[in-house]
Amino acid sequence: MTKFSVEAKVGFFVVVGIVILAYMSMRLGRLEYKSDQRYEVYAYFDSAEGLVKGVQVEIAGVEVGRVRDIILEDGKAKVTLHINSDIVIGEDAKAVIRTKGVLGDKYVEIVLGSPQASPMPPGGRIDRTVSPANIDTLIKQLSSIGKDIEEITSSMSGVLGGKEGEASLKLIVDNIRELTQTLNETIQRNNENINRILDNFTVFSGDLKEITGANKGAAGEIVANFRQASNQLREALTAFNEITEKINRGEGTIGKLVHDDETIRSMNETLVALKEITEKINRGEGTIGKLVQEDETVEVLNETLSGINEYIRKEGRFKTYVDYRGEYLFDSDDVKSYVSLRIQPKEDKYYLVQVIDDPAGKREVTETTTTQGGVSTTVRKEKTDYDKIKFSAQIAKRYYDLGLRGGFFESTGGVGADYYFFDDRLILSLEAFDFDPDRNPHLKFKADFTPFHYIYVTGGVDDFISDEDRESFFVGAGLHFSDEDLKTLLYGAPIPR
Q1: What separation in angstroms does the CA of 440 have from each of 115, 356, 415, 436, 470?
Q2: Which domain holds residue 154?
Q3: For residue 345, what is the domain's CATH number?
Q4: pLDDT per residue over 88-124, tens digit each?
Q5: C-alpha–C-alpha distance, residues 54 and 470, integer Å
Q6: Cα dihedral across residues 290, 295, 298, 299: positive or negative
Q7: CA distances in angstroms from 258 to 190, 238, 267, 307, listed in the order given
């Protein structure tokens, strides 16, 4: 492999720096690269409570874009939507702010209209919108329902409570007992008549058979149907007779209600207890009474729910990313592997933890000083552990398209800078670490490009000002997943049986 001099390496680094500074000056001069992958539309909502930038825009449960911006305009929330270029939205489409689950994140759903509607141009406005429901309104409706229940229970208590209610209920039970007895007696008294009617139907069917000899088939069907109906009527009357006999014997729920004074007493005690509960609610006693009667309790509940909603909204911004990348080093003909965990509490700040398997190993330098005859001798020994795993722990802050990092880089202190292009699909990075006074620091330049959602490719030069001939060009690839991607993979994977 051709070796580069230190001057050539420094020159390469200076050229890369000039290119980055030129692009940054173009961005600061408001000359931006435009991506044709998405287009923007906007919609006005009476309220965009709980909606944040960057959340999904979905059609029929499928993500088709992101929320680009949320501003206040003319007393309404103007929400700018970034839609994928392959998605066509009609001018009669409707935008709805929905919630995932009961207390989940807010997102925007687009409900398509007629297929014959004209396509909405870039920069168009969605006129039909639906804002999210207000929790305070739901609390007020719940309070109104509680008052209605209170009035109903008060009315029931006034009708059925006390001695008058007990007397009325007992009178109703007595009337039911008399009705069942009368019905039983009627059935018993007319049992012979019913049997005689059924016998007459049998004789009539025989006569009808003789009369309708010419239509024997049709007459047979009619007779069969009458016989079946008469049998079913007999079974029904027999079953009804058994039911009335069980009621008279005090069996079953209705029988106990009619004959058992203990059941009547228990019902009366239940009504009295229900009346006491409603009176306590009217006096504002107990949890439900305070909820219905005291405005202060309702206000505290509203504040608590608002706090929970704010906490859940903040938690929704917390994102986690898992990453693996492999770099093939041309100089050593080996692969350097990284496993990364990125925790991002805010859009412009994240923490990075890495585990690195470096084929170059980890070098440890020890110096031993001995004094003999008044003369001190220092012996310097270098030892390389090729099986040693390296670690990185960094904190990063992003300023628009520029990101700065600091912390531990491959088990040594260091700093790094990243510059983002084309909606973060291309990232140029420069890292400097291992600042040993006896040798040049470890400088690494790389470029990551993401052509697909989960896969990216990488390339660059590692340790390019090394004074120990350890510089090497590299290429590689990697996989990266967010917490939402992992949830989708885990929930969508089939369970082995």
Answers
A1: 66, 21, 15, 7, 11
A2: 144-282
A3: 2.40.128.20
A4: 999 999 999 998 876 678 899 999 988 899 999 999 9
A5: 42
A6: negative
A7: 25, 22, 12, 55
